[in-house]
Write a structure and sequence with these properties.
380 residues, 19 helices, mainly alpha
C-alpha cells in the first residue's frame, strides 16, 4: 500500500514538473521564437563563462592564496582576538565565534561547519549558539571574493559600505535564529562541555621554515580558490542565464536575434508594479536591479555574473553596489546551503527557521546598506 502511494506521488510530481518545465520554456519560446531562445541560452552561457566565470575564478585563486597566508602567519588569529570583545554584545556568541566569521569571509559558508565540528572550538558554545553559527557564518560567505570583485569594477568605497550592511544583517539573522531555537527547543540552552580547553589549540599553523610555509600557503590557498571557482560554474551558467533572460529585453531594434543577454524582461515588468517599494528600501532606480538579490538567494557567484551587464547597460551606481554587496554577502546562496549545513550538525528540523531568519537578515542588510550610503553621501 505504501509503495503504491509513493509511486502515485512520484507520478504526480513528474507531471507537475513537466507542466512547469514546458510551460516556462514554452512561454520563452513563444515570445522569442524557439531557435532564438536556444541560441540566446547558449550564447549567454558562453559569454558568462568567458567574461565572468574566469574573472571570478582568478579572484578566488588570489583571495584563496591571500586567505591562506593570513591563516598561516597568524593574522586571522590576531583579527579574531580584536573582534572577540564584540561577539557577546552583538551576536550573543562566545568570543571564539569571531574566528568562524573571519574564516567564512576568507573562503565560503562551509568553513563554519568544519570549525563547529572542532571540539576545541565547540566547547565554548551553548548548543543553541552553536546551531546559530549556520546563520552567522553564512552572512560572511565569500565576502572577500565579493569585495575584491566590486573593487575590480572600481566600487571599493561602496563595497565597504555594503560590508557594514552585511554585518548589521548578520546580527539580525543570528539573534533571530537564536530566538527561534530557544522558543521551540528550550532544552538546547545548555553548555556543550566544560571550557577547560586552550583557545590557542584552535589554530591552523603548519610546520617548516617561514619560506616553505609561505610557499605552501599560497599554493594550497590558490588550489582551494580553483575549487571554489569551479564550484560556481554551474550556478553562474545556469542560474544567471535564466535570470538574465527574465531580466533583459530584446535587441536594440526590438527584435530577437539569438544574441547573448536577450530576454523577455519579465522580472523588471513585475518589479515595476511595486518599484516604489524597492526604490524606498534599496534605492533601486531601475527595476532590473532586483534580479541581483533574487539570484543571490541561490548563489552569490551567479549574482556577480549579472554586474558586468548592469555596468554595460549603465543602470548601476554606488548605492546599488553597496546594496548588492550587503545582500550578496549576507545571503550568499543560503537557500542552497542551509539544509546541508544544519544536516551536518544534526538539526535539519530547524532549517525552515534558519531560512526565515536569514531572509529577514538579508533584507535588513540591503536596507541598512542603502541608507548608510545615502547618509555618507550626504555627509561627504
Amino acid at each position: 500500500m505504501k509503495g503504491m502511494k509513493f509511486l502515485t506521488k512520484r507520478r504526480i510530481e513528474a507531471l507537475i514538473f513537466l507542466i512547469i518545465f514546458f510551460g516556462f520554456f514554452g512561454f520563452l519560446g513563444h515570445k522569442m521564437e524557439l531557435p532564438n531562445m536556444m541560441n540566446t541560452i547558449m550564447n549567454t552561457a558562453y559569454k558568462l563563462l568567458l567574461d565572468t566565470v574566469f574573472y571570478i575564478m582568478a579572484i578566488t585563486v588570489i583571495s584563496g592564496a591571500l586567505g591562506n597566508l593570513l591563516v598561516e602567519f597568524g593574522v586571522v588569529r590576531l583579527i579574531e582576538v580584536v573582534l572577540r570583545p564584540l561577539m557577546k554584545p552583538l551576536y550573543n556568541l562566545p568570543g571564539v565565534a569571531a574566528l568562524g566569521g573571519v574564516m567564512t569571509f576568507l573562503s565560503d559558508n562551509p568553513a563554519i561547519i568544519s570549525l563547529s565540528k572542532d571540539t576545541h572550538f565547540a566547547r565554548y558554545f551553548k548548543k543553541y549558539q552553536l546551531i546559530s553559527l549556520t546563520n552567522f557564518g553564512t552572512a560572511f560567505g565569500m565576502g572577500l571574493v565579493v569585495i575584491m570583485f566590486m573593487m575590480g569594477k572600481g566600487y571599493l568605497p561602496a563595497a565597504l559600505v555594503g560590508l557594514l550592511g552585511a554585518v548589521i544583517g548578520s546580527i539580525i539573522s543570528t539573534r533571530l535564529m537564536q530566538h527561534f531555537i530557544l522558543k521551540s527547543n528550550p532544552e538546547l540552552d545548555v553548555e556543550i562541555s566544560d571550557k577547560d580547553g586552550d583557545e590557542e589549540k584552535i589554530s591552523f599553523k603548519s610546520e617548516g621554515s617561514a619560506f616553505l610555509r609561505f610557499l605552501n600557503a599560497i599554493l594550497d590557498g590558490g588550489k582551494s580558490g580553483v575549487e571554489i571557482g569551479l564550484a560556481i560554474i554551474p550556478g553562474v551558467l545556469i542560474i544567471s542565464t535564466v535570470v538574465m533572460m527574465l531580466t533583459f529585453g530584446p535587441s536594440a531594434d526590438g527584435s530577437y536575434t539569438g544574441a547573448a543577454y536577450e530576454g523577455i524582461a519579465l522580472l523588471p515588468y513585475l518589479a515595476g508594479k511595486i518599484n516604489i517599494v524597492f526604490e524606498w528600501l534599496f534605492g533601486f532606480e531601475n527595476p532590473q536591479l532586483v534580479s541581483f538579490p533574487i539570484t543571490a538567494l541561490g548563489a552569490v557567484g551567479a549574482a556577480l555574473g549579472l554586474i558586468p551587464r548592469f555596468i554595460q547597460e549603465g543602470i548601476i551606481d554606488g548605492n546599488a553596489i553597496a546594496v548588492f554587496t550587503a545582500m550578496g554577502m549576507c545571503w550568499s546562496g543560503y537557500l542552497s546551503t542551509h539544509t546541508a549545513m544544519l544536516d551536518s550538525l544534526g538539526f535539519r528540523s530547524l532549517t525552515s527557521k534558519a531560512i526565515l531568519a536569514h531572509t529577514v537578515g538579508g533584507l535588513v542588510a540591503g536596507v541598512a546598506a542603502h541608507w548608510l550610503y545615502v547618509l555618507l553621501a550626504w555627509i561627504f
